[in-house]
Design a protein that fits this description.
Blueprint: E1 17-19, H1 20-27, H2 31-41, H3 51-54, E2 64-66, H4 67-73, H5 77-98, H6 101-109, H7 117-123, H8 127-132, H9 134-145, H10 155-175, E3 178-183, E4 188-194, E5 197-203, H11 217-241, H12 252-258, H13 269-278, H14 305-325, E6 332-335, H15 341-350, E7 354-357, E8 376-378, E9 392-394, H16 397-405, H17 438-448, H18 453-476
Parallel strand pairs: 6-7, 6-8, 8-9
Antiparallel strand pairs: 1-2, 3-4, 4-5
């Protein structure tokens, strides 16, 4: 019987995919520009289920993209900007070669640039979508903010990442949103609750960087370009939600406290304000002052019998969170020179404590070590020559362990020179039947109020008495 001739690889899965080279030719882009465009638009390669069919019988290794994704890119305005930039570079090179300096200046003034605002709105239709995808953005921005100012990446990118991360940290402090902290080999893990969504990121330690040679910094810089735009939008919205001014400004009283005699020793005039903001020791100003008495109480409706237990559990969780937010309230900390200043200041401020340091360490110190109202001094050295009677001297781990335990732990285990207890990860949740380390069991007992430091000493004393009695019996024999 007659009919249309069906050719192989012209229907089904083979027509849904396109190789990278064909996609590049279709868009008329170089490999670097194609890769950059895909990162900005969030388009990634796909592994076909039947790779041999899609590859038209060949087993050669190829990278495949969905054809509908490539068609989606055809009308992207950023592609035109890429082409305009190529023309700009060609004209600029020619002007330099001819020595036409007037043309060079004119071209530089009209350098083509593109914005990613429409891409952000396209990829994140709602604000909650952007908050859910904030983890990677924060990790990358915190990483770039610690880079040295070398030729590996632009100085403007490093400064922008630093500004955005400091703004986000000030928001977390103002909203008391921090929930968990963990010190790992790679860096410090933080988890905050933003609009009901858990946001986890890692902050690298401030060590000297040794740039690896096998890392493509251009790809990382493209991701950072997108993430800085996203974080800028998110920061603005977060500040608006708390009725804070954006860009953030320090309130007058805090700024007056941070005023030092010779600020030029710390930074240039243009950088002094940013340095004060990044010190994390002062509060940011609100657009309209907020009064807790004016806040309306939430109406409570009688719950059904089946949901009553759930409602009570939710109330208990909320009460625990509110108590955790005020963990360090009323406490005054002083950081010694050898301690990591920024992580400690960030964590202490998030939970309502006051913090300061020596004026020679960093700008932003609010009180001196001689202040008699200091309750805790954080030290990281085995012994101290001079100690004040009415304050505790503890190692930095005490602050982080208290946050994870949600209670103020006994300071005896964290005195200078004492071997520290294990730093348990708050991200591990044991299920029924799992092994729970004894340190975790002790911590759970302390949270319930069943364990006190005296229990261990009493049991130890009884054991000593028993052993001494046994020794006496042996001597009699």
């Amino acid at each position: 019987m007659g009919g249309t001739e069906r050719r192989k690889y012209e229907k089904g899965a083979a027509t849904n995919y396109i190789t990278r080279n064909k996609a590049r030719k279709k868009l008329q882009l170089s490999l670097a520009d194609f890769r950059r465009l895909c990162i900005l638009k969030g388009i990634y390669p796909h592994e076909p289920k039947h790779k041999k069919k899609v590859n038209k019988g060949s087993t050669a290794p190829r990278t495949f993209y969905l054809l509908k994704d490539i068609r989606f890119l055809l009308h992207e305005p950023i592609i035109n900007k890429f082409r305009e930039y190529k023309v700009f570079v060609r004209k600029l090179r020619k002007a330099y070669g001819k020595g036409e300096w007037g043309t060079v200046d004119r071209l530089k003034e009209n350098k083509p640039a593109y914005k990613l605002d429409h891409v952000i709105k396209e990829r994140y239709p709602t604000f909650i979508d952007a908050v859910r995808d904030l983890d990677d953005a924060l990790c990358m921005c915190f990483l770039f903010s610690t880079f040295p100012r070398t030729g590996k990446c632009h100085v403007q990118t490093i400064q922008l990442c630093r500004r955005l991360t400091v703004e986000f940290m000030n928001f977390v402090i103002a909203s008391h949103a921090l929930r968990k902290v963990f010190l790992s080999i790679k860096g410090i893990y933080y988890q905050a609750e933003v609009f009901g969504q858990p946001v986890t990121w890692i902050m690298p330690y401030t060590f000297a960087h040794d740039h690896p040679t096998d890392v493509d910094y251009r790809v990382m810089a493209t991701f950072t370009e997108f993430y800085t735009t996203l974080l800028g939008f998110v920061n603005f919205r977060l500040y608006q939600s708390l009725n804070l001014l954006y860009p953030p400004k320090l309130d007058d009283s805090s700024e007056a406290e941070l005023k030092v005699a010779k600020e030029d020793r710390y930074a240039m005039d243009s950088e002094v304000y940013m340095e004060k903001l990044s010190a994390l020791s002062a509060s940011v100003i609100r657009a309209v002052s907020f009064n807790e008495e004016d806040s309306a109480e939430v109406d409570e409706f009688p719950a059904e019998e089946e949901n009553a237990a759930l409602v009570e559990q939710k109330k208990k969780e909320q009460k625990d969170i509110e108590a955790q937010k005020k963990l360090f309230e009323g406490l005054k900390f002083f950081l010694n020179r050898e301690t990591p200043r920024e992580p400690l200041a960030f964590v202490i401020r998030c939970f309502g404590g006051q913090v300061s340091w020596d004026k020679s360490v960093c700008i932003g110190a609010t009180y001196d070590v001689t202040d008699e109202s200091i309750t805790h001094q954080i030290v990281d050295r085995p012994t101290l020559e001079k100690q004040v009677i009415n304050r505790y001297y503890v190692q930095p781990q005490w602050v982080f362990d208290c946050v994870n335990a949600k209670i103020l732990l006994p300071v005896e285990d964290y005195f200078p020179g004492v071997v520290l207890p294990p730093h348990l990860s708050p991200f591990v949740e044991e299920k029924e039947g799992d092994y729970i380390p004894p340190e975790k069991l002790k911590l759970l007992a302390m949270q319930k109020g069943e364990f006190t430091g005296l229990d261990e000493k009493d049991s130890g004393g009884e054991d000593d008495e028993g052993s001494s009695e046994e020794e006496e019996d042996d001597d009699d024999d």
